[in-house]
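A reminder from the course coordinator: this example appears on the midterm review sheet, so study it carefully.

Given structure:
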């Protein structure tokens, strides 16, 4: 299995099996979609939950890579469930599925922090589209985490360097390390957003 970070989310951009929780108020629909996703996409391992309370229990106990939530749920609506989960798992990829009031639901979904959105159409097989949205959401999150890890390592190297290092954007200091602060006899916080040319002038 791919290495996971705290909270059950994957720590690298290399993906193997993807653990999906499918939340719906219709057990028959959820079970059918889960089985079809696993049949078509062998790397998807799909578990279904009937309603928000069961979903929250699974999220608390299991390692989930992506959550697929239907808008219509018994205890609440899907967006309220998303908001509750976002408080605990802010980076968990979430795909919302809705079959009515698509535009209004989509707007609320974006505000709630949904990763992607799928208008439900019972007249066609949407399994391939849903599988693609799941995969894309998980891969984007894994890639974003890999980039963040790389930036964090790069920043650590710069901050620990014995050389004075400064990064400029349009003539202003975007970042500098402690060594540069010592060189200019200023704190790093005071230097950020300062015009580099003005700093040189006052140092002369």
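Designed residues:
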């Amino acid at each position: 299995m791919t290495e996971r970070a705290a909270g059950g989310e994957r720590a690298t951009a290399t993906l193997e099996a993807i653990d999906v929780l499918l939340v719906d108020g219709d057990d028959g629909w959820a079970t059918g979609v889960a089985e079809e996703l696993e049949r078509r996409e062998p790397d998807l391992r799909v578990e279904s939950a009937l309603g928000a309370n069961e979903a929250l229990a699974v999220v608390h106990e299991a390692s989930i890579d992506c959550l697929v939530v239907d808008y219509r749920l018994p205890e609440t609506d899907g967006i309220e469930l998303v908001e509750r989960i976002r408080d605990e798992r802010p980076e968990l990829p979430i795909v919302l599925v809705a079959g009515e009031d698509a535009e209004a639901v989509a707007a609320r979904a974006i505000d709630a922090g949904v990763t992607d959105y799928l208008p439900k159409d019972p007249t066609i097989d949407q399994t391939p589209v849903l599988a693609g949205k799941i995969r894309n959401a998980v891969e984007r999150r894994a890639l974003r985490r890999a980039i963040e890890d790389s930036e964090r390592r790069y920043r650590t190297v710069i901050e620990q360097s014995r050389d004075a290092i400064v990064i400029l954007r349009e003539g202003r200091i975007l970042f500098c390390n402690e060594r540069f602060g010592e060189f200019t006899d200023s704190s790093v916080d005071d230097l950020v957003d300062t015009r580099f040319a003005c700093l040189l002038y006052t140092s002369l």
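The longest strand covers residues 18-24. Helices lie at 27-40, 52-61, 78-88, 102-112, 127-160, 178-184, 188-191, 196-203.
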